[in-house]
Amino acid sequence: MQLMSSLRTWYEHGWLRAIDLSLAEYIYTKLEQDAEPVAVLAALVSHQLGRGHPCLELEQLRADVTATLQLPPEHASSESLRACASAQQMIAELGTDIWTKLADSAAVSEANSPLVLQGQERLYLRRYWDYEQQIKRDLFARMERHYPVASEPVASDELRETLDDLFGRSGSLSWQRLACAMAVRSGFTIITGGPGTGKTYTVVRLLATLQQHRPSAEPLRIRLAAPTGKAAKRMEDSINEEIKRLPARYTEVLTENQAVTLHRLLGTRARSRAFRHNAGNPLLADVVIIDEASMVDIEMMAAITAALPPDARLILLGDKDQLASVEAGAVLGQLCEGAENGHYAPELATWLDATQSEHASGDDKPEQSAQLPRKLLDEQGKQQWPYLQHTVMLRESRRFKAEEGIGKLATEINQQQTTWLSEWLRDASQGQVTDSKLANIQFLQIRKSSADSLKKLVLAGYQPLQELLQAGPAAFTDVTAWGEALLQQLEQFQLLAALRRGDWGMQRLNELATLWLHGDRVTSEQWFVGRPVMITHNDYSLDLRNGDIGIVVQASPDEPPRVLFRGHKKGSLRWLLPSRLTHVETAYAMTIHKSQGSEFTHTVVVVPDHDTPLLTKELLYTGITRAREQLTLVCAEPKLVLQATQRQIERGGGLT
Ligand SMILES: Nc1ncnc2c1ncn2[C@@H]1O[C@H](COP(=O)(O)OP(=O)(O)OP(=O)(O)O)[C@@H](O)[C@H]1O
Q1: Which of the listed residues 178, 200, 392 should we mutate to test ligand 1's pocket, taking the one with most ligand atoms within 8 A of CB?
Q2: Which residues does the record give as ATP binding sites (predicted)?
Q3: Which residue's CA is the closest to the ligand 1 atom numbered 25?
Q4: Is 471 in the same domain as 597?
């Protein structure tokens, strides 16, 4: 077999991207020895990157070629299956001694070679290897950095008093308080937890603690950021709301803060991947908090860590169980690996225990029940689980009760427990769920995505929006109040599609919703009044971000339609002419990926009618946890929900 020609056939049939083949061609022309097999491996590393993996995991590849590479692709035509060599044939053709040859190849062994081989385990493109090394170096340095307030082996009385003040004196274990105490000790902290577990509540109290115990008279410079504009806005609102609830003496030291996107924090440069802030021009900050950190990819995390001054604290907030970014890497997921089991080193546990409330009797030891459960301690914790010494997983949702509706469904899917799930799917599909605790979750089984019952659901869900549009500004005190009501209504009901394309995908659902709501006089791609839209690329000239949501409105018949968005200042609105917007799509339905960082009162998650490797428990969990009050799961076959629940995303990488 001619390896390079087989690779070209793969590209011609859409099995590889142009960039994967170009890299292989480049390496092929440069190498004098073993050019073909090494070029094939380079193409595969690049192919994996396109699928979100920062490297090619060699053990996995040797164990299961098809599953590792997901080749042939899902929709491969029978013609391409005939024309293309299988992935197994290709790997077999590389020869059994390829791994030794690879280690000696100029493509991996020379300084600045395009590939990096880590042991016999992982093959990287150098750029991604560098990102990983940068992140590890930086986080380890930050984790080792202790601050004046925590320089003593046991917590100071002042710290315990502040925590008592902010969290209340209690004889029982508070994970939130623990997270706060842990974060005081070092320059890097992760606070992870599902929706409503109090990440914001905790981080606000952490900021108050840090301000209270800051080493100098100057207030700490705090920067808040999130991957998307929407997530930044939510973060800003909820942090500032929570600050107002603090006792007055803390609001004196902790004032309101603005949150920005990560791109804005680091400062984008036109036509460049590099940012204005970097190791040579670090951010002016003492504390940087990043929300929705599960969406941060490896390249962005490397840029963040590079741009932080060495003595700044980095605090990541997010739900480790949510989908990772579409770009390569699952940074938060990997750093939090094992967090359920704590793995805290005994000396850390002793310190943390000492920060809990004193015994009510005045004994200066914390109550037994306020101590970290001993089963979460690990003698080897510091060596084997270094990041977990800086990670707290919040375990109790204040928004969803674990045994009720949305919370129950999300937990069962997240923990891949299919017994309860299959019973619920069976009963719900027959309309036989009697448990009132499950009233806020419904299952709608339909054979076709154009089914009448889905149409009824969509018409009812979007009716209040239609009514607001028809009522116009005359029904409100002014046009701004009308605009605000419209934008709030957009958060009330939302269709989320597991896939982008296909009969049950986002695009088709948008076509159907447009047809059902507006008839056939418009199509989902036109600028019709009432069209909800999502920005799909950052537009720096208009200051709009990927993921921003707006709606086409017409305030009066003699004015042209405008697209209404939220402004950056609190309570402000923007009314833009549609012709100024270049990258938008209709947003009656959006993909679950795009919905990350948002919440909707009633969320409808639509699962496709066939199984696909893209259908995973992370995808379902992320979609379901977008629902604030009500969730409808729509699917042709309950068994597809069970299959998705059993499938977990495995992203490689050597961060841990
Ligand atoms: N210990 C607590 N005592 C009282 N109220 C709390 C406590 N922890 C959280 N809350 C409240 O519970 C609600 C959810 O908390 P919060 O918004 O901090 O959660 P979150 O994890 O940040 O949620 P999200 O999923 O939106 O990111 C808020 O109203 C918050 O004030």
Answers
A1: 200
A2: 193-200
A3: 195
A4: yes
